[in-house]
Model the fold of this input.
Amino acid sequence: MKMRSFLSITLLLLAFLVAAAGAKKSKAPIKPVGLIPNYYKVTGTCKQAEQLVRQVVREKVRNDPTLGAKLLRVHYHDCFVKGCDASILLNTVGTNQSEKDARPNLSLGGFEVIDEIKTRIEKVCTQKVSCADILARDAVSFPFKEPLWDVLTGRKDGRVSLISNVNGNLPSAFSNFSTLQTIYSNKGLDINDLVALSGAHTIGVSHCGAFSRRLYNFTGKGDADPSLDPAYAEFLRKQCPNPASLATVVGMDPNSTLTFDTHYFAALKKRQGLFQSDAALLTDATSAGIVRRFQSREAFFKQFAKSMVKMGAIEVLVGDAGEIRKDCRFIN
Done:
């Protein structure tokens, strides 16, 4: 890890407004929504709210360097299913299984941090700050000492979380390029967003089951995925014997698991993308060209910020829509 660590690129990148300037038009363009910077301070509903969020997140990230990637993943999984409304935080009640119980979400972590933030805020501002806005604050600013851009808040929490809503909306590690492009387009995100947001795989880890088929039985004949670098595949086999262990994890970026940088894109060019969805970015000429461009730190960071703004604006609830939960795990 020779480059400056940007491990907390997470919660700050979570809830912003507006499609990025110059972004290519998609099937479902994102329209401006009623969010503003420092909503709780400006409106006087809870002036210390955003500072409290920042304080708790920084404490936790400082003690757990893996937390940044976990929280980023929670946000990503939330926004792609019914928008950024904190529906991913809701627990199953009775027989109605929530999004949290869907297979792609079983390995998510960091929920207890959101709970702690909510508990602290409720002590000073009872039922004033939404869980969606708690997911929309700036763990990411931790290593930078200042926000990277204005954080927009003022959203409400959703009341619906169903396991059935996950399938077909959340990109998977097994997706091909066509599937990825369709899912992103349906959310108002274009190919630049697709490649940039995939770059979040530069931090964090994955369980072996998410990619073991590429190592041992890619076509059902006991073979390996030919698009995977043979030396890297052998390294992964040593880390993940067959059958895959539920307890074993591997860094998604072979060069810098805790550092938010451009190594992910360099690894892709070497055929060292961990998932099929990573390798898929090289199967389209336009996407492959963007991968090459994002090996530039300036180009990647600029687009990543824009793409996170767009993703954070997907189907947000404001005004009279939704509610402000007392407990992030349950509707009121």
User: Anything to note?
Assistant: The beta strands are 36-37, 152-153, 205-207, 249-251.
